[in-house]
Request: fold
Amino acid sequence: MFLAFAAPNILLIAAFSYRPLISNIYYSTLNWTLGAPTAKKVGFGNYVDFFTSPDAGRILGTTAVFSVATVGGSMALGLMIALALNRRVKGAGLARAAVFSPFVLSGVGVGLVWLFIFDPTVGALGSILRGLGASSPQWFNDPTLSLVMVIIVYVWKNMGYAAVIYLAGLQSVSPDVLEAASIDGAGSTRKFFAITLPLLGPTTFFLLVTSILNSLQAFDLIRIMTPLGQGTTTLIYDAYLQAFGGYNRAGYSAAVSTILFALLVVLTLLQLTFLERRVHYR
Amino acid sequence: MSAVAQDAGLGRGPSRQRPLSARNLATTVATGYVPLVLATLVVVLPLLWMVFSSFKSPSELVTQDLVVFPHSLAPTNYHDAARTVPFPRLFLNSAIVTLVGAGLKVVLAIFTAYALVFVRFPFKRVVFGAILVTLMVPPQVSLLPNYVLISGLGGNDTYWGLILPGLGTGFGTFLLRQQFMQLPGSTIEAAEIDGAGHWRRLWRVVVPISLPSIATVALVNIVFEWNDYLWPLVIVSEPRMMTLPVGLTLLRNSESGAASYGILMAGTVCVLVPVLVVFATLQRHIVTGLTQGAVKD
Reply:
């Protein structure tokens, strides 16, 4: 009876989530082009190629910069927005909905909207900068600026999620503790750093881990804003480009995917270990 | 840590009002209103810009000056977008994939969650653990093997090829299992004593009282399927089988030059506005559903 109810879902998960993990490891030992009937076994060759080529440093570096900047940016802005929302001023509900809304929007659509805004010749940002007497940065041609651009848009899209989670955390901070501190003469800055922030520990930790995992999987914005991956080739985007982007190195792509998956597993295990110990519990 | 994000609603809990003084008012404005107005503008203005621009003529777009409002509201760009890419057809494809995909996922989640909570089985915890792990396997990692499999079965440019690999559902199962575990045991037992089998108990008792949670799961899945990009991008190559996000990519590739932004924005409006409308109406459910992952047992 149990199986009758649960089997369809379990079979689908086995076929399309678990089987691929194993296939990927097998594919990663092949020198193979997608669609080709034959492939050559190369053992760990693809991994050796990745780590000994200049790719490794560049791609891992881009991935690290992208993750740190997007996670830091969306959490810092999310916390600031949450603090403002927590003052419960009139219209805060509307602001909460507005700020959260980009999180549910298609990354492709959002990417196009911002591509138009960032366009150095006809974009709104350029017009504003020219109005101020400056000139528009070359967002599309300079790889560093392209990465900055995608990071900004990613933060814009995800800060509302962090804000809503932080808001829930803030609402469980007891007003009594804060009031007691006020009576003891603590100013609002002191109260924030000595009471609110430590009490938000579990929330911060949860957000940190989920945000890092999500940022490692960012694809839509990168694909639509910088199709060639100029300056924005993260691990996941490299895996895509190698198999489907004209490089025709499916085995190599599987190796990159496997490296990415290993990274995700390590992060998840870290989360499970540290969640129990390092975090302040109420 | 329980129920961190169970309800991120506002205006709950004890709020202590201090006497309203000029100083308090100034603080409230500076720390409450100003950041919120700024944040709201930062989010809303780009979206308004998209809508305005979708009605602008090339001469209003290709200009160094900032033209805010379009001269006319003639849907020229929408017609042009539909000429380059078969937009009505893509809209239909997206709707089919979203409704069938999300619908099947909800049904699968209901069945699995019911089995996990109400049916006796020796390895339930192991099964649940194995389903949960999939929440951590990103679809990107399974992309290549799933492509090889589905493509080998002839699933390129088909609806089933678009829908099938994404059907296994960890998120919905997780959420509905939590909901089902909170149901009063007496109600279920009463139905059992009345001789109702699992099938009847599921549809007559469990589903009706869990409708709000089921609706939340459905909404989140609908939004997810509508926006889904990576899989449709690789499995579909014929324009008539594309979903909207993939069609936008095609539109971007085929329309170049500054004047084409109006057409691009028209296409983008077709993708974003339906979700914005759904979100505006059912905001509370969607936010709860999407932040429920923050709830740890």
